């Protein structure tokens, strides 16, 4: 799966470098380039984008202002010559903060986080959180995904865990 991305930067040399880097990474697909933040916002209102490479110091709206406006589903990687805004960038949940001039190695390190973040989100959606429940006195354990639990019922010295497919009884209390 390729991440659809756009570049929003008012410096042509910086956009050329980012375009070159994006073309070298198989899981990135450049959709468009903007040197005007307002035109970028118009584009984002009509087109689906996964990642935005966003300069901070721009006319009309800064990159920080844009990141507050756009959908939270869009991942932001700031590309700037100013280290002063890094903290605020990460407070806005930026994937990374790249300082110009950007070396390819550092660029690749930043975009690699996109793959690891999407894998984490996928594994969270596949119920990666689980517990083991002792099901009888012979030290037999049952793996139970937390997302599968509908409700838990107390039966004096026992607990019954209800899922859509089964009921698991264990010698325990809710205390």
Question: How are the SSEs ordered, and which strands pair?
Answer:
Elements: E1 3-8, H1 12-24, E2 28-34, H2 37-46, E3 51-54, H3 63-69, E4 75-80, H4 86-91, E5 96-99, H5 104-125, E6 130-136, E7 140-145, E8 149-155, E9 158-163, E10 167-170
Parallel strand pairs: 1-2, 1-3, 3-4, 4-5
Antiparallel strand pairs: 6-7, 8-9, 9-10
User: Strand pairing plus helix content: what structural class?
Assistant: alpha/beta
Helix count from the secondary structure assignment: 5
Q: Strand order within the widest sheet?
A: 2-1-3-4-5
* Count of beta strands: 10
What coarse outline follows from CA principal-axis ratios?
A: elongated
**Share of helical residues:** 25-40%
Strand content: 25-35%
Mean pLDDT: 87
Q: What is the H-and-E element order?
A: EHEHEHEHEHEEEEE
């Amino acid at each position: 799966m390729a991440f659809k991305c756009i570049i929003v930067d008012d410096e042509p040399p910086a956009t050329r470098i980012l375009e070159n880097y994006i073309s070298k990474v198989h899981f990135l697909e450049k959709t468009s380039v903007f040197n005007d933040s307002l035109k970028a916002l118009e584009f984002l209102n009509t087109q689906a984008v996964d990642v935005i490479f966003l300069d901070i110091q721009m006319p009309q709206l800064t990159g920080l202002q844009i990141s507050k406006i756009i959908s939270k589903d869009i991942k932001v990687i700031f590309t700037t010559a100013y280290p002063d805004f890094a903290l605020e960038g990460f407070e806005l949940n930026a994937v990374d903060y790249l300082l110009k001039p950007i070396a390819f190695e550092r660029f690749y390190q930043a975009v690699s986080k996109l793959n690891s973040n999407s894998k984490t989100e996928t594994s969270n959606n596949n119920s990666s959180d689980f517990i083991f429940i002792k099901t009888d006195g012979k030290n037999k354990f049952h793996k139970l995904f937390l997302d599968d639990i509908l409700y838990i019922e107390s039966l004096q010295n026992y607990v019954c865990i209800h899922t859509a497919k089964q009921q698991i009884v264990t010698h325990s209390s809710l205390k």
